[in-house]
Amino acid sequence: LHCDVLKMADFEYSDINPANELEKRIADAFLIFDHHGNKTVDVREIGTILRFLGCVPTEADVNEVISATEFEDSNGTVHLSKFLPYVSQLVAEHKMEPAPPEKLLKAFRVLDQEGKGFVDKEYMTKLITEEGEPFTVEELEEMMAVAVDMATDKIAYELYLNQLLVDF
């Protein structure tokens, strides 16, 4: 699986010359977030850009990209000239890809020890906010809005995974 890089509108590159279609798409996505027209973005936009490209980075991944691409004297900005080759290589190496559906199903089945086909909302909320890399409040709300059956307050995980596949 690879980052699903979206086809974007053409931008003026001037001093940046994307070498292939992948680099062009990455540059196009980056330039959407360049609010000053100087081929730079605030480091706080990097996670959004990566997700916009279809990648699924952890916060550690985002921080790694920032560390590798941020200019030392830039006051928290990343220039396209450093971002483009670095992210192109990550995408080419299939980094930051979403987990395959089979792996997600297996994980849900581990959580559903009784094999009922669902996980309680409260249990899932506790896990994803307290274990591993915790979800943000926004990520939690987005997930629960799609995943939870409001009538039962449970996550029927096979249905939820099917919804994810349709949306993806």
Automatic annotation (TrEMBL):
<feature type="domain" description="EF-hand">
    <location>
        <begin position="21"/>
        <end position="56"/>
    </location>
</feature>
<dbReference type="GO" id="GO:0043226">
    <property type="term" value="C:organelle"/>
</dbReference>
<feature type="domain" description="EF-hand">
    <location>
        <begin position="99"/>
        <end position="134"/>
    </location>
</feature>
<keyword id="KW-0677">Repeat</keyword>
<dbReference type="InterPro" id="IPR002048">
    <property type="entry name" value="EF_hand_dom"/>
</dbReference>
<protein>
    <recommendedName>
        <fullName>EF-hand domain-containing protein</fullName>
    </recommendedName>
</protein>
<dbReference type="InterPro" id="IPR011992">
    <property type="entry name" value="EF-hand-dom_pair"/>
</dbReference>
<dbReference type="GO" id="GO:0005509">
    <property type="term" value="F:calcium ion binding"/>
</dbReference>
